[in-house]
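chain below, 427 aa
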Amino acid sequence: MEGMEPHLSAARWLTYSTEASRTGASAEELYRWNSELGSAFLEVVGHVECCVRESVDTALRAWNLVQDGRRFSAKASPSTCWAFPDHAASPLRGIVNQKAKEAYGRVSRRGHATNDDIVAQLSFGVWVSLLPRECRSSKNRGRWLLWDEAVSRAFPRCRGGDPVRVAKAMERIRELRNRIAHSENLLAVDPEARLADCLLIAAAIDQEAAREIAAISRVRFVAQRDPRRQVNRAFLGDSGERIRIRPIEPATDRFLLYCTVLGNVLTDNPNAVLRTVMASPDLGIYTNINLGRGDFGIVAEVSGVPVGCAWLIFADDGKHGYAYIGSDVPELSIGVVDGWRGEGIGRNLLRALLDEALRRGIVRCSLSVAPSNTRARALYAEFGFRPPECGNDDSGDHGAVRRSVATERLMVAYIRRVDRSMASRRQ
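prediction:
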């Protein structure tokens, strides 16, 4: 993205360079990430707008058809063509008529216009304007009347039947969309909050549609790649190689996950092969990273080649890993590729992963490691991991450890207690 700098105004580029100086990221990385986040949001907002447009149009067609003739202008009578200029009944006409005329003008230049053509030309702001954004009063009587008689049917799952929350979410998404359309920076945008707004709007119409949008959304994945976050950092290995840490990509990093799990399995089963991991339901749990569930991980790379990774997965009583002790305690997996061990990669991966966990509000995690693997157990101990009987909770109790857990292999860490000033850690 360095080639873009000469084509941006000094003021626009200053925003990125200032943020880069403050956070240690590069301006080029921030600009690239900003573009990726904008693209991810446009995909989601596009789906949400389709839901809103279709649902509201359907409701307004039915409503406009049954209105008293006295609610119409002299040029119109009850019909489903509410989007044509002057064809909507009051109070809808007063809210949308000007925008409808502008849309009709754009469409009619291409030939015959239909109600569908005009509706497709209406901006997201028009749909926002239909909902009341304040409590009932004489100043917004028209919008509340329209909500009660028509628009509420477009949002059948609106919580408590109150449109204000949905309207405010729609207004925030309208502002976000405008920023993206004008290539403004999104550095101060909370991606999770704005994605929640999109899903709230969709769920008020159709919960299944909201689930589908959440499933295909790339917003969380792109947000994880924010260059300002601690997981996106680099360090020098003992050999002087620059090692970069980035967020894990569950789909494209799947083979790396298989290989890492295999490396861990070989400690107990020297005859294991990659097919062993791929065919085992128990081991498959560790390669099924679900970002929507709260799982996350990181990868260490040298010149773009993965050399190690670490991740945390959540589970439940029905399906879980060997170190499962509760649905609120994620299990940690970590591994470094042969030939790159002894470079400080495992230590840096562990530090970055626990830093990110703490940032997410996770204060405890577990792992399973063979008692004979003294080198790994010593590393984990540096970061606060202890066997359950050591009781490193304030209460001296880790809670009920399930009998199915091999307790001699189990180690648990209270992340808030990790001593981050240890001189033995490589910077």
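The beta strands are 233-236, 242-247, 296-302, 305-313, 331-336, 364-368, 410-414. The longest strand covers residues 305-313.
thats it, cya
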